[in-house]
Amino acid sequence: MTLRPARSFAAARGLLRWVAIVVVVAGAVAAQTDSTRAGGALVVAVPEAPPFAERGPDGVYDGLGVRLAEAVGQRLGRDVRFVAGGDSALALLGGQADLALAPMTRAGEVAADFAAPFYAARLGVARTRGNRVFDVLGRLFSMTFFWIAAGLAVLLLLVGAMMWAVERRHDTDDFHESARGLWDGFWWAGVTMTTIGYGDTVPRSHGGRVLALFWMLVSMAVTASLTASLVSALGVGGAGTLHLPEDLQGDRVGVVDGSLEATLLREANVDARPFSSIGAGLDAVRSDSLDAFVGSAPRLRAARPSGSSLRVESTGVEFERWAVAVAPGSPLREPVARAVLDHVQSADWPGTVRRYVGSDRSSTP
Name one Pfam family in it (predicted). Predict the structure, then answer.
């Protein structure tokens, strides 16, 4: 009879112990939730890298990444406070900052966890605008234009020779039997391809007319391809896509010392002169010390002085992905990643990108 109270007491004590464990775990979860959603202000380390982040003369931070960080804070229910990070924004994580805005790099992965990328910037080239007419005239004497013209001449000569071989015994007036007939065939192939068709040289045999019909069809494709090649070679097609390293061969090129673009050009065997900053490189282009300066296209445009004669052309290379970073092992990583992805997929994000980046058509995750 004396064992029943003891057993009841032991059972009650065990139940209380489990209740206490549940309370502690629930409190820890609630505390973690509070730290990520309703805690103090999120401190964001900001580099000086317009148009992604910069501090204005009035001390107010602005830029594409700054607007994103504010949206992340709003989605997490927390205020946002910005601190200057300079070139070492990632080094402030875990101590002086909760988040940092920075391009994703291999070295950066050691110091931080990149929660989510929000913009992929293309590689760009800054040059002086120059005189359009002189630029086109200069390209007329380039090797590219020479090889296009030489290839076309060989093709016309082959087609003309075929027509002369077919017609020279049937139509000696238009296609002479002598070697002069080769010129007749060359002339006919040229005016037929360009659809001018003077009518002074006309095939009269059945074989010649069949060959003429075949050449008319083929010449449409040749003309389209030739037009595209000439527009590219002469640079008269507007702002086309640059191709590296071909379009930089023979130029005096500059890059920011130690940057990712410096590594890319070195691997492409392009000799590039190092500069301390984008501004210093653009000044060298303006003073004619350089022919071109290579860097992130949005950052080159943002650093270009107002009213400058510099133009910035984008390449097809997406090489700099900007992201929000957190300290390794931070509980903020998952909620921040979700907030970033939600915002960049919202209807407001494209307008924000156009506002800060403008004409650079890079993709977003």
Answer: Ion_trans_2
Q: Is the dihedral of CA 226, 227, 232, 235 positive or negative?
A: positive
The conformation of residue 93, written as its DSSP 8-state character, comes to B
Say which residues have a Cβ less than 8 Å from residue 286's Cβ, sequence separation at least 6: 128, 308, 309, 310
Torsions phi, psi for 344 (to 5 deg) = -70, -15
Q: Pick the more confident residue, 351 or 260.
A: 351
Domains of the chain are: 3-121+321-357 (3.40.190.10), 134-234 (1.10.287.70)
The whole-number average pLDDT for the span 182-211 is 84
Residues 6+ apart with CB under 8 A from 169: 177
Three-state DSSP state, 243: coil
- Which DSSP state fits 113? E
Q: What is the CA radius of gyration of the chain?
A: 34
Q: Which of 336, 287, 321, 255 is nearest to 104 (CA)?
A: 321
- The pLDDT tens digits of the residues spanning 22-52 come to 444 444 433 443 344 345 899 999 999 999 9
Evaluate whether 324 touches 82 at the Cβ level (below 8 Å): no
- Please give the torsion angle defined by the CA atoms of residues 39, 45, 51 and 54, in that order, rounded to the nearest 10 degrees: 110
Do the beta carbons of residue 187 and residue 167 sit within 8 Å?
A: no
Work out the pLDDT band at 242, boundaries 50, 70, 90: low
